[in-house]
Write a structure and sequence with these properties.
139 residues; six-stranded antiparallel beta sheet; 2 helices; disordered N terminus
Length: 139
């Protein structure tokens, strides 16, 4: 298990044998037995594959901070309605909705996902630095 010291939210590390490539999944509806796919990192270049794992627990458990849960369903047109949720320290929030995306929609969602994961990582480092500075100042 991995978890940051100041949070209670933990997730098991990814098992590489269970990684799926997002672009291989997006042209079809999600299986009924899953909640979505979990993203913990997004490569900087849109042509690089985004590795994911299915989240099969249908309960609305919290996401590990910085994780993104993507889900999609067929739209009224021929595309997919895509939703992204971001895990924060105490909750998950709606990150984005992309309605009626056609074909391989990974290049459309990539910029948002990459930027948000990067921003969350930067804020986590800044928060840790602030906690350390406060600790050192108190001693």
């Amino acid at each position: 298990m991995t978890c940051r010291p100041h949070t209670q939210l933990c997730t098991p590390p990814f098992n590489s044998s269970h990684h799926l490539i997002l672009s291989d999944l997006v042209r079809h509806p999600m299986p009924g037995s899953v909640r979505g796919v979990l993203l913990r990192s997004v490569p900087p270049h849109p042509a690089q594959p985004i590795h994911t794992v299915w989240i099969t627990d249908l309960k609305s458990e919290r996401l590990r901070p910085g994780s993104i849960l993507l889900s999609w369903e067929p739209s009224l047109g021929n595309g997919m309605d895509v939703t992204a949720h971001l895990g924060l320290a105490s909750t998950k929030v709606l990150l984005a909705n992309w309605p009626d995306l056609q074909g391989d929609w990974t290049p459309v969602v990539h910029p948002t996902l990459h930027e948000v994961i990067g921003l969350h990582a930067a804020l986590s480092v800044a928060t840790d630095a602030l906690h350390l500075a406060n600790h050192l100042a108190a001693n």
